[in-house]
Specification:
It comes from Eudyptes sclateri. The protein is built from 20 helices and 24 strands. By secondary structure, the chain is of the alpha+beta class. α1 packs across α8, α2 runs antiparallel to α3 and α4 packs parallel to α7. The radius of gyration is 35 Å and the shape is extended.
């Protein structure tokens, strides 16, 4: 069968143009051809083709050339070209796992020539070994046949070149001879690589951790040995016995981008042993037991049977809101409002035309008072009125000192943009008390309704964590919302932010800018804050630092600028779960008055967590600019683990009791470096909820 394949290959070669005479010539040939085909293909006019059949034929021809170019790049060990082709085409377009006429795949050539970088690139792209190699014997026989047939072809061509007189045919024979000589050397190198290879060593750093009450996760690294062949897959095995008899299950991992595996469907409270082994073309290597040798699926909540803190809270709040609405819906003062629509039915694009209507109630200048402005942005552009002004409406022209309680109330209202009409009705009912606070809040709701009506958009976005003020007594409450690129608007004026900043004619002096001028000057910072506030942490367990400072009317919390919706933090590990055993150890540590010196212990999950915490605490102290010797007075919050969505969890590091919250006038001896800010606690809570 192999001899017949080689004969077919010889006939194909005879019909093909002469092959490359050397590796360098071959490299130039396939690069030039690839470039030529790429340009010609992309320059075709679709309308000029006769039909779908011709286009499909052209496409297949083009992809065939790409497949041939990949084989040649692997054979010539051209890593840059291999990476370029893998990036430019999908595995399907390259026929990455379709054997060539010799029964080989690109990955076979890479691993048998022991080219680890190319082999890893192919493996990450989904490359596989040839299915023809079902055993070591079949691979050895296949390589021996390729070498023998190539040697035979070289001898035949050599005899023809020696015996024939110099002519055109002889020149072609010489080119074929050089190409076959090069291929003969390639096959010999592949055969030698296979014969000298040995099974891989065991994987390194095999670490086992508890992922949940019914799963464990194993992570590992490649074998350290550089003399064995490239590893193409791994096997994870698990059992309830340290001898792995019986074996409960196994999984083969052939996607090597991330070397980890989660074993699911396990029984809580049962110990599971895990081992990992590596595979190359010579077979499976020895297994490596995990560290620790076993893990028991569990969760910290099992320690005292504690239920999740937020279980049922959202449903309870929805039920409570429904009850409140039911109480108010039959009020007499609501009768005139029943005919009003609960939601605006007109399109956004139609309503946005108010931006350009001369009769709109957007303000151009500020007079002493309280105002609301909505910033809608897309990329580097911002939405403006027909007069190139940021949309601003008045809340109260007699209000020159915004109380923090009113501002925080406004931020809570921002969670209910769709309920503004109903909230207005509720506040109207209570106005008989003539409360100044209620009057102000009712005006806030009116301003929100006015902004929503003029823009035709219910959702005004997120409230910036502090209002913009000036010395003239103006106060701006700012909302921010990013407009997605797939949203379509008609007759909307988008202006580049830089153009708006340069074209605005300021009526104030640089020493005393108005609130609008201050807003424009700092608008990039506010947009950056808004974008960072929506970022999420990658899954894992984190160590957070809780630091508060109090003022007369508020408490503020220290957060990093890059993630203002999260406490200052460092990552402990990628596994967010705290097991029952780890939590028991943390409870014991919290109850000990004097610190226990670290001593070498047997490898277990508690000791591993202790080492991880030591590293994380040092990193966190450096981050917030606190001397490491002060950390001895800090403590871990041992009441609970803070869970966020099941994929992110936090352990809290607390300063000494007297230093958790800095009082007004109290000096903080350790000031964090740049890159931090303090948010009002209620604003931080709203941001975390978002």
């Amino acid at each position: 069968k192999m001899t017949q394949q080689m004969r077919d290959l010889q006939l194909a070669q005879a019909r093909k143009p002469p092959g490359p005479s050397s590796p360098n010539a071959a490299k130039r040939l396939y690069r030039n051809l690839s470039g030529k085909f790429r340009v010609n293909y992309t320059s075709f006019d679709e309308g000029s083709l006769a039909g779908r059949g011709e286009k499909e034929k052209l496409r297949k021809s083009y992809l065939f050339q790409s497949n041939a170019a990949l084989f040649e790049a692997v054979e010539l060990q051209d890593l840059d070209r291999v990476q370029e082709l893998l990036k430019q085409y999908s595995p399907e377009e390259l026929d990455l796992n379709t054997p060539n006429s010799e029964g080989l795949l690109p990955l076979d050539i890479a691993i048998m020539t022991n080219n680890a970088p190319i082999a890893r690139a192919l493996l990450q792209a989904g490359g596989k070994e040839s299915p023809h190699f079902v055993s070591l014997e079949s691979r050895s026989l296949h390589l021996s046949t390729l070498v023998r047939e190539a040697e035979q072809r070289v001898n035949e061509l050599t005899a023809q070149v020696v015996n024939e007189a110099p002519n055109t045919d002889c020149s072609e024979k010489e080119k074929q001879l050089k190409a076959w000589e090069w291929r003969y050397r390639l096959y010999k190198r592949m055969k030698a690589g296979f014969e000298h290879a040995r099974v891989p060593d065991a994987p390194t750093n095999v670490h086992l951790s508890v992922a949940s009450s019914s799963s464990v996760q194993v992570t590992f690294w490649e074998p350290l040995s550089v003399n064995s062949a490239v590893v193409t897959k791994y096997k994870v095995e698990w059992s309830c016995s340290p001898t792995f008899s019986p074996r409960l299950g196994e999984a083969v991992i052939d996607k090597l981008k991330n070397l980890h595996f989660t074993i699911r469907g396990l029984v809580s409270g049962t110990a599971y042993y895990v081992q990992v082994s590596a595979y190359n073309m010579k077979g499976w290597g020895p297994p490596q037991a995990s560290v620790p040798p076993f893990a028991i699926p569990s969760n910290w909540r099992e320690y005292d049977g504690r239920a999740p803190r937020r279980r049922g809270q959202a449903e309870a709040l929805d039920h409570l809101l429904g009850q409140v609405k039911t109480v108010h819906q039959h009020c007499v003062c609501h009768e005139p409002c029943k005919n009003q629509p609960q939601s605006r039915k007109h399109s956004v694009s139609k309503s946005l035309k108010h931006l350009f209507h001369p009769g709109s109630k957007f303000l151009k200048t500020l007079k002493r008072g309280l105002y609301l402005t909505a910033i809608f942005y897309k990329d580097d552009n911002i939405l403006v009125t027909h007069e190139d002004q940021i949309p601003v409406v008045e809340i109260d022209d007699t209000y020159s000192c915004l109380l923090m309680q009113d501002f925080l109330w406004f931020t809570k209202v921002s969670c209910m943009w769709d309920e503004i009409l109903w909230l207005r009705q509720c506040v109207t009912v209570s106005q008989s008390s003539c409360s100044c606070i209620l009057q102000t809040r009712f005006k806030m709701l009116l301003a929100i309704s006015q902004m929503q009506g003029l823009l035709g958009i219910q959702d005004l976005g997120q409230v910036f964590f502090e209002p913009v003020k000036d010395k003239q007594g103006n106060i701006l409450i700012v909302t921010l919302k990013e407009v997605k690129t797939n949203q379509t608007f008609e007759s909307v004026r988008w202006v580049p932010i830089c153009k708006l900043q340069t074209s605005r004619k300021s009526v104030s002096s640089p020493e005393e800018p108005t609130a609008l001028d201050t807003l424009l000057i700092s608008i990039q910072d506010k947009l950056a804050y808004h974008q960072r506030s929506s970022h999420a942490l990658s899954p894992g367990l984190y160590l957070g630092y809780l630091k508060l400072c109090s003022a007369v009317d508020q408490i503020r919390v220290l957060v990093p600028e890059r993630l203002p919706n999260i406490l200052c933090h460092v990552k402990i590990r990628s596994n967010p779960n705290i097991s029952r055993e780890e939590w028991e150890w943390l409870q014991k540590m919290a109850s000990v008055e004097e610190p226990i010196p670290a001593e070498p212990e047997a490898e277990n999950s508690q000791n591993h967590l202790f080492q991880e915490l030591q590293v994380a605490i040092k990193e966190l102290m450096t981050l917030v600019n606190i001397p490491l010797q002060e950390a001895k007075d800090f403590r871990l919050y041992s009441q609970e683990v803070l869970d966020f969505g099941g994929q992110v969890s936090f352990l809290l590091l607390l300063p000494p009791s007297d230093d958790v919250c800095t009082a007004p006038g109290q000096n903080n001896p350790y000031t964090p470096r740049s890159g931090f800010l303090t948010l009002p606690l209620q604003i931080f809570e709203l941001g975390e909820e978002r």
